[in-house]
Amino acid sequence: MRPIGLLFRSVASIVVGYLLLALTNMLFVTLWFVQPIAEWPLPVILALSVPYTFLSALAAGYGAARIAARRERTHALVLAGSMGLVIIASLILDVAVEPAWYKGIYLAVMVPSTVFGGHLRARKARGAQEQAGNREASS
Q1: CB 133 within 8 A of CB 81
Q2: What is the C-alpha radius of gyration for the chain, rounded to an integer number of angstroms?
Q3: Most exposed: 26, 29, 57, 85, by fewest CB within 10 Å?
Q4: What are the pLDDT digits (tens) for 68-124?
Q5: Among 106, 110, 118, which Cα is nearest to 75's?
Q6: With bands split at pLDDT 50, 70 and 90, how would you rate the model's confidence at 41?
Q7: What does the domain layout of the chain look like in residue ranges?
Q8: Sequence-distant (≥ 6) Cβ neighbours of residue 70 within 8 angstroms
Q9: pTM of the full predicted structure?
Q10: Is 49 exposed, middle or buried (0-12, 13-18, 19+ CB in 10 A)?
Q11: End-to-end Cα distance, the chain
Q12: Alpha helices in 69-110 (DSSP H)
């Protein structure tokens, strides 16, 4: 692939990963903090939001790594870092609807699980390459 194609693919992987993460979390925030459900007890909200945040970030990291198709962990790390910066900026500027404690959960759960999603994709890609190499060697 030509260098411009690799650059486009890298940028696209971060943008798509960011959009996936942002859209899924905006949906959750809209359902929980804008609607009357926001009056539910904090333990219930945490019990639902932590796994949801983990899974959406895991999917975003995996998706970004899959689209990049090279240096999977690096792309997931860049995505996680950009999300971390957005969360910190949101905390400082206090511009979002969700409370500060929820942004803290975002930071503590979303960033590492995004990186973990990229790691899972990298392991899967490496396993596929090793299997292809083993098939060629046995032929």
Answers
A1: no
A2: 18
A3: 85
A4: 888 899 999 999 999 899 889 988 888 766 778 878 888 899 999 999 999 999 988
A5: 118
A6: confident
A7: 3-130
A8: 6
A9: 0.79
A10: buried
A11: 27
A12: 72-93, 100-105
Residue 36's contacts (CB-CB under 8 Å, 6 or more residues apart) are none
DSSP code string of 14-68: HHHHHHHHHHHHHHHHIIIIISGGGGS-HHHHHHHHHHHHHHHHHHHHHHHHHHH
Q: What is the 3-state secondary structure (H, E, C) of 56-67?
A: HHHHHHHHHHHH
3-state SS class at 131: helix
Contact criterion met (CB below 8 Å) for 61 and 79:
yes
User: How far is 32 from 101, CA to CA, in rounded Å?
Assistant: 14
- Model confidence at 18: pLDDT above 80: yes
